[in-house]
């Protein structure tokens, strides 16, 4: 049971990290486009 919880927590942390990375990449791309269009 502890192993299952560990796997779920690890998957959740990986999902959060991936989401943060994608969000930061999108914000960087948006910022670059804003600078180029501005």
* β-strand amount: under 5%
Which bin fits the share of residues in helices? over 70%
Most strands sheet: none
> What's the Cα radius of gyration?
16 Å
Account of the protein in words:
- By secondary structure, the chain is mostly helical.
- It is 95% helix and 0% strand.
- The chain is built from one helix and no strands.
- The chain is rod-shaped and about 50 Å long.
- It starts with a helix and ends with a helix.
- The chain crosses the membrane at residues 12-29.
- Keywords: Membrane, Transmembrane, Transmembrane helix.
Which terms would index this structure?
single chain, 38 residues, mainly alpha, 95% helix, rod-shaped
What is this structure's SSE topology?
Elements: H1 2-37
Summarize the structure.
By secondary structure, this protein is an all-alpha fold. The protein contains one helix and no strands.
């Amino acid at each position: 049971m502890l192993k299952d919880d560990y796997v779920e927590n690890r998957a959740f942390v990986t999902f959060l990290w991936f989401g943060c990375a994608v969000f930061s990449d999108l914000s960087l791309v948006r910022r670059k486009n804003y600078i180029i269009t501005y």
